[in-house]
Amino acid sequence: MKKQVNDVLERLRVFGIENSVPNITDENAEFLTNLVRTNWYKNILEIGTANWYSTICFADSLTDLGWHITSIEFSILSHNQAIDNIKKAGVENYCKLIHGQALDIIPTLEDGAYDFIFIDGMKRRSIDFLQLCWPKLVQGWIVVIDDVIKFRHKMVGLYEYVEDNKLNYEVKQIDEDDGIMIIKKPLI
Ligand SMILES: C[S@@+](CC[C@H](N)C(=O)[O-])C[C@H]1O[C@@H](n2cnc3c(N)ncnc32)[C@H](O)[C@@H]1O
Questions:
Q1: From the CA of 120, how far away is ligand 1's center (Å)?
Q2: What is the Cα–Cα distance from 121 to 32, expressed in whole angstroms?
């Protein structure tokens, strides 16, 4: 299965570069994949599937561990591409792709069910995604928000929100011009 996943991943990586798909960067893919691998996350939620490149990166490290990924995307074109890609990668049994507006779908998901939540949707709604996702996260585990340096100006209210609510967060520079915010949910 690994080879099948890697083949799809490489094809998507090249397609993304040639067609300007806003996939995560190579450095970010490496960082997040290591994070997933070392922490043994088992139940991932992703907001913003696009063509599924980022999720297949996670899939690469999780297929041996009984993992599961739920990913939400509102573009029907991207959602259909993602379905096609997970079939080609042979990981459809481990994934649930949901087509729709994440702001409506997140509240319908089970509370306390996800140990890693990756937010990579519309930047100006990042704070809304965070607030909606928070009850869905297992205590002691993390939310990661992408592009928080380059698009900080679009993420209105996000930095103020994490500061005002004294959330345990860290902004990590991942590549030359951008980085992620890692927010850890307290145990109690
Ligand atoms: C930056 S791309 C995601 C890239 C992907 N995570 C990757 O690295 O391969 C953002 C995606 O989120 C989707 N999106 C943005 N806002 C959304 C929302 N409110 N609900 C569902 N999907 C959304 C967009 O259609 C787009 O495909």
A1: 6
A2: 16
Distance 188 CA to ligand 1 centre (A): 31
The predicted model scores a pTM of 0.95
* pLDDT value at residue 65: 67
Q: Running along the chain, 188 residues long, what does each successive block of 10 average in pLDDT?
A: 81 88 88 87 92 78 76 95 90 91 98 96 97 97 96 96 97 93 93
In single-letter form, the type of residue at position 110 comes to: E
Nearest CA to ligand 1 atom 11: 48
How far does the centroid of ligand 1 lie from the alpha carbon of residue 186, in Å? 27
- Measured from CB, residues less than 6 Å from any atom of ligand 1 are 22-24, 48, 50, 53-54, 72-75, 78, 101-103, 120-122, 125
* Distance from C-alpha of 165 to C-alpha of 167, rounded to nearest angstrom: 5
Please classify residue 13 by burial: count the beta carbons closer than 10 Å to its beta carbon, then call 0-12 exposed, 13-18 middle and 19+ buried: middle
